[in-house]
Write a structure and sequence with these properties.
Elements: H1 17-25, E1 41-46, H2 52-68, E2 72-77, H3 82-91, E3 99-102, H4 108-114, H5 121-127, H6 131-134, H7 137-141, E4 144-145, E5 148-149, E6 152-164, H8 165-170, H9 182-192, E7 194-196, E8 199-205, H10 216-220, H11 240-255, H12 259-266, H13 278-281, E9 284-290, H14 292-299, E10 306-310, E11 326-333, H15 340-352, H16 354-364, H17 371-374, H18 386-393, H19 408-422, H20 428-446
Parallel strand pairs: 1-2, 1-3, 8-9
Antiparallel strand pairs: 3-11, 4-5, 6-9, 6-10, 6-11, 7-8
Helix pairs in contact: 1-3, 1-4, 2-16, 19-20
Length: 447
């Protein structure tokens, strides 16, 4: 299962509320950081996992931590979503958490710039951690913003392409040769598509942005755009990668049946996180998805052979095949905590201790977040899972840039993209220019 079912464009329900407590949190990394981490104490850790296997994996790691740090007891509170976390951080108080985690990497810019998460620099320096030697660059990038590190990567999500090997054989495609470029993806999708009246018996690939995981930022992971320039201005209106991705995606929509027909078929899909996912049922033959899908498909006992590969790349970037979109779970310290040194010991353990990272990755079927854990012989995954380990380690794998208003700019970009794929807007260049202006305006208001 993924770190948690989510869309990376998700934001806090109360986006503006972080600003209400920004001033109260600013500089608070120093507040409460004079506690003795060797003293007998109890800290509280809030996380969002709730499935029994996930909770067990968390508790097993907490037990390892308490054995290594017998003076620190950890009270664990699970099933905390971002709304609950936001409320606790905004109101503060003695009943709030000391250590926090979130599944929303796209909100790190907001967390760091507002002070919602404490600055970790003093703790990292005190521990003499060389993060560049411990953790892949992309993960380090999405856990800091504008030079301020307020989070550490816990586990990673890497996105790739799942494909139905049995359907490949039936369509005359080599099941050992998945598509490597987007031209090949479209060609394969056409070969795998079986129409049925005004719908489909089988769709080769669901390209629509409303489809499961086929969001603009997930697609753009194959391109690797900058999103912003050095001055912080949006580049979605001038970056050729953004326009090319939308052109390629629109071509897939049009040539696989058109937006209306695809959307009608999409309404027949089962729940993304259940056994009736359209890839599980054979309704789609290829699926862009995260590493968790392999385990979920196995649990659903799908009646076909599953192939796993990196997502295709733009035709002009064929040499970079193997890269992909990355995100993950983040972990930090609540700025109101009066036990921040003890809290840091838990954060450091969970995010940098190889045994802890490997054990947790094994427990919830996510990708490890450190170099040592990625190559650990103790990883107990299906051999096909190595595809995601390789994507996570690829030097050109990427994730969206941070922003002070979190994922708002990604929502704005996707809103425009939806109109373009529908055909409601036909001026791609002009539309992207207006989208960039809107993004800049929203960010200016958030500062």
């Amino acid at each position: 299962m993924p770190a948690r079912p989510r869309r990376l464009v998700a934001t806090f329900a109360a986006t503006a509320s972080i600003a209400l407590f920004a001033s109260a949190c600013t500089g608070s990394a120093a507040n409460g950081a004079d506690d003795d981490p060797n003293a007998q104490t109890t800290i509280t850790f809030w996380h969002g996992w709730s499935a029994p296997s996930e909770v067990k994996a968390i508790n097993d790691n907490i037990a390892r931590f308490e054995k290594a740090h017998p003076n620190i007891k950890v009270e664990v509170v699970g099933n905390i979503n971002d709304d609950k976390l936001n409320q606790a951080l905004r109101t503060g108080g003695s009943k709030g958490p000391d250590v926090v985690s979130s599944f929303t990497t796209s909100n790190v810019g907001k967390f760091c710039s507002s002070g919602a998460f404490a600055d970790l620099k003093p703790f990292i320096e005190k521990s003499k951690l060389d993060l560049g030697k411990l953790i892949p660059k992309t993960l380090l990038d999405y856990t800091q913003f504008d030079g301020k590190r307020c989070a550490m990567p816990l586990l990673t999500d890497a996105y790739g392409l799942y494909y139905n090997k049995t359907a490949f054989k039936a369509a005359g495609l080599d099941p050992e040769k998945p598509p490597k470029t987007y031209s090949e993806l479209l060609s394969y999708a056409k070969a795998l598509t079986k129409t049925k009246g005004d719908s489909y018996e089988q769709l080769g690939f669901m390209p629509n942005y409303h489809g499961y995981e086929t969001t603009t930022e997930h697609y753009l992971g194959s391109w690797g755009p900058s999103y912003f320039d050095a001055s912080g201005k949006s580049t979605v209106g001038t970056d050729p990668d953004v326009a090319e991705m939308m052109t390629v995606q629109k071509k897939m929509v049009d040539e696989l049946g058109g937006y209306a027909k695809l959307e009608k078929y999409r309404t027949t899909f089962g729940d993304e996180w259940g056994a009736k996912h359209p890839f599980h049922t054979g309704q789609v033959a290829m699926q862009l998805d995260g590493e968790w899908r392999l385990g979920m498909a196995s649990d659903a006992k799908v009646p076909f052979d599953i192939g796993v590969a990196p997502m295709p790349v733009p035709d002009a970037q064929a040499a970079d095949y193997g890269k992909g979109f990355l995100s993950g779970t983040i972990m930090g310290i609540a700025p109101q905590s009066r036990k921040q040194n003890a809290a840091w010991e838990l954060v450091k353990f969970m995010t940098t201790d190889t045994e802890a990272v490997v054990s947790f990755a094994n427990g919830i079927r996510n990708v490890p977040s450190t170099f040592e854990a990625l190559k650990s012989p103790k990883l107990t995954f299906d051999p096909r899972f190595k595809t995601f380990l390789d994507i996570a380690a690829h030097p050109k794998s990427n994730t969206p840039a941070g922003a002070v208003n979190g994922a708002t700019y990604l929502n704005t970009l996707q809103d425009f993209a939806l109109q373009y794929e529908k055909g409601s807007v036909t001026d791609l260049k002009g539309g992207l220019a207006k989208t960039a202006q809107q993004i800049d305006t929203d960010i200016a208001k958030a500062k």
